[in-house]
Design a protein that fits this description.
Elements: H1 3-6, H2 9-19, H3 44-47, E1 56-58, E2 65-71, H4 76-94, E3 99-105, H5 110-121, H6 125-137, H7 139-142, H8 150-158, H9 164-170, H10 174-191, E4 198-201, E5 204-205, H11 212-224
Parallel strand pairs: 2-3
Antiparallel strand pairs: 1-3, 2-4, 4-5
Helix pairs in contact: 2-10, 5-6
Length: 225
Amino acid sequence: MDVMSRLDRRQALKAGTAIAGLAFLTTAFPALAQRAQGPAEVPVAELMKAGDLPDLAIGPEDAKVTIVEYASMTCGHCMHFHTKVFPELKKKYIDTGKIRFIFREFPLDARAFAASMLARCAGSTEKSLALVSALFETQETWAFVKENPTPKLFEIAKQAGFTQESFDKCLTDQKLLDQLTAIHTRANTVFGVNATPSFFINGKRLQAAPSIEEFDKVLEPLLAG
């Protein structure tokens, strides 16, 4: 069964209804990070088209190189990248103004949708990405636990400034759920994304494991050229 069969429109809306009671968070779905990759290259102009939700991006807009990542908040490989690889990538390439990095949501299950919604509700891009980082760092405490993860998610969200009211309001925002579903659907149907994390570097998919060494191999020639 492919990703879109698991996360079709009906399931997304069903998750949205369940969010109202937060009961849907008690079920963990298996991440699908090992599925076959899509096309090796996609049109840059199409990849960079703006959607209803603004991109969560850092780095100069006129950077010579742009990395687009599609990730699920419940993906263990995504967690590894953001906690182990991304800090070095940021220090070496983003903070020095060499590249632009864009984080896009590709939720693989209901809990990933909830986490992505909370990150989007955090406020500015900086605050959203900070909450993304916090959620990845604490992933094992809420993503795959058997018990209801809502208290833990609220505990994490409180540190980002959420109140109980703003937390509940965020997780019952049908428009936001629809917008995140649209990002997921477009990534799958237009760019062939069906695994997480998926990286596009100036439109070309990173086929290797996302280590800093593999990024170096791709980025250095592009920056030098």
